[in-house]
Amino acid sequence: MAVSPVTVGVNVLLLGALYAVVAIGFTLIFGVGGILNLAHGALLTVGAYTAYYLVNAGIPVWVTVPIAGIVAATTGVVLYKGMLKKVADNPVSVLILSLVAGLIVEQVFLVLEGAQPLVVPGIVDGGVAVLGTDIELNRLIVFAISWLVIGALFLFVNETKTGQAILATSMSRKGAALVGIDADRVFTLTWVVAAGLAGIAGVFLATFQTVTPLMGRTPLLLSFSIVVLGGLGSIRGSVIGAYLISFLDQITVQYVSTRLAGVSGLVVLVIVLLVRPEGLFGRELTEG
């Protein structure tokens, strides 16, 4: 049975916001520290499993959202301080170590839980009908919270002194140091924010689908495609890129084959790198 265009449009709208939250964290780390963090998907997995364990301990799902963000943020800072900071000037070493770290996280959960899918309930139950299409209230809540997070991040970066310090550091570490900005403090804060976003996104994704050790791989691939399309380091580009990739992914999954989920993002990645490697909005962290 063919899926209606309304259903596809709703899925694009709702999933695009979640993709944007994941991709913004990825692009923040690159924009400020110049690091392509291949463990970003694993941080999402950490958030999802945190929610699963807490829910099974009797804690409501909505309470697990900030806790998962904190756990993922702590994991991200440990990864940065313990490993990646030491080789930050060597991009190849950063890629290898972050990839290995992500694989280690996957293996830990494989050992602890096996490969069987685990279930995290939705934040809320029930659904509503929109233009003849039934939509889970959980997805609407995730959409609303995702946009609140995105809006708050825009305001934080553009309107606060700490956000301006992040922006200044992303433009020039030496220039930022000259005006008294502690680059290491800024890098650490960026990792806290980016990893926290990944952990929160992990909980949201877990309420849509099952939790597995490898669940972070597709979001990582999509995030990479999104930030390359939007421009590495561009928050606005990540949001726009997230919706473009969400649209292409839904068209592919709904009208071609569910087995091709994520493939459209890889195709876009190749095309953008060949035709416009700087992406749609270049490599700035933010635009006013």
UniProtKB/TrEMBL annotation:
Protein name as it appears in the record: Branched-chain amino acid ABC transporter permease
Subcellular location, principal: membrane
GO molecular function, a single term: transmembrane transporter activity
Organism whose genome encodes this protein: Haloglomus irregulare
Pfam families: BPD_transp_2
Subcellular location: Cell membrane
Spans through the membrane: 12-31, 61-80, 92-112, 140-157, 186-208, 220-244, 256-275
Sequence similarity: Belongs to the binding-protein-dependent transport system permease family. LivHM subfamily.
GO biological process per UniProt: amino acid transport
Domain of life: Archaea
Record's bilayer topology term: Multi-pass membrane protein
Coiled coil: none
Lineage of source species: Archaea, Methanobacteriati, Methanobacteriota, Stenosarchaea group, Halobacteria
CDD domains tied to this protein: TM_PBP1_LivH_like
